Amino acid sequence: MAIAQDQFDIYRLDAYEGQIGTIEVNKVDSGVAGADIPFGRAVVRDPVTGNILPWATSSAAWDLLGISVRSQTGNSVQLPQYGSVYPITTAGYLAGQNISYMTNGAIRAMCVDGALAGNIVSIVNTAGANLGRLSTGDGVQIPFLRWKDDVTAGSIGWIELNGIFTASGV
Known about the structure:
This protein is an all-beta fold. The chain has one domain: Virus Head Decoration Protein, Chain: A (Beta Barrel). Helix content is 0%, strand content 32%. The chain has no helices and eleven strands. The strands form three sheets. Strands 1, 3, 4, 5, 7 and 11 form a six-stranded antiparallel sheet that branches. It is globular and about 40 Å long.
């Protein structure tokens, strides 16, 4: 007699930071990481080298290049961990590696302060473990980005990028 599976969420979180959210058409670009960049974080372009850099405390809304995508082709710095609090702060791309970042499509990201569906996304710009993560609280507001679902503080939620344009036209 077969055993029926009745717990489909066992050993599974809602999602991981930087996970592509749908199989719809997504635009994912690539470049070279100019520094270590965690998954699911806002990224900018280095105006001197053209490399991709993590969001900085001095970054502005027009600097946003995209959101770093969880790599599906290489090893991450740290394997995913399970638990009630999302513990990964170092999984991502190392400086010098090729990085993928989404400029158009649906992606999962941690919401630091929690959000309701439709809230404007802001990017945390204070130094620390959450720099470059997304929120609705203090930070740099990105008016054309909205949370697609209700998400509790410290949990993973959906955002949909509908094309990102930088001031430099890159």
